[in-house]
Amino acid sequence: MLTLYGFGRVNSKVVGFTRDLRVLWALEELGLPYQVRGMDHPSGELRSEEFLRLNPFAQLPVLDDDGFVLTESAAILLYLAEKAGRLTPTDFQGRAQVTRWCFAALSSVELPLAQLLMVDLLGASDPTGAQRRPGLVKYSERVLGALESWLEDRAYLVGEEFTVADILMATVLREVRHAGVLEGFPKIAAYRARCEERPAWVRTLDAYVKRLGAPEESVR
């Protein structure tokens, strides 16, 4: 059986932003049997010798497929799609486009959005945050404008079919859902709504809230 190492306890500020959500969503979409091993991040469990043998970077998520261990959320999603034969095109070039958009979500788009998220989460504890935020907003709006144009005549990133690339992009966009930068991008808003209306995402979020004991409003 697949075992996902995910968060069992985490700082309340990052609840709803953790990257194990991406893998959980894919597993629910694919209908693969799995179990979650909840890790206690604040206690330092990710720094244990046992866990560092799985991921030397002390990060989640980690997937264990009967002894085959894989880290990095995009790599895990691509692996699961290949394993199940779903959420990725059947042709070589189509799969290459999915890989392309996985990279784009985590580099081109997430780079400024994640920095903006950290500035907002840290607040006054980051003395340079107020100074850096306007530039990050401008950077974020530039990449979001490019994504808006791409989605002009597409339901999803790679045509009309939902893929693992959309899981990555939708979860990246969640990072700034309260930052005000998504306003003015109607195609992105509609795209994100399509993704998050999927039953598998609803199940994922419900299970996540229960596992972490988090207030539901904190992750919506």
Automatic annotation (TrEMBL):
Domain of life: Bacteria
Swiss-Prot/TrEMBL keywords: Transferase
Molecular functions (GO terms): transferase activity
Annotated GST C-terminal domain residues: 91-216
GST N-terminal domain location: 7-88
Protein name as it appears in the record: Glutathione S-transferase
Source species of the chain: Myxococcus stipitatus (strain DSM 14675 / JCM 12634 / Mx s8)
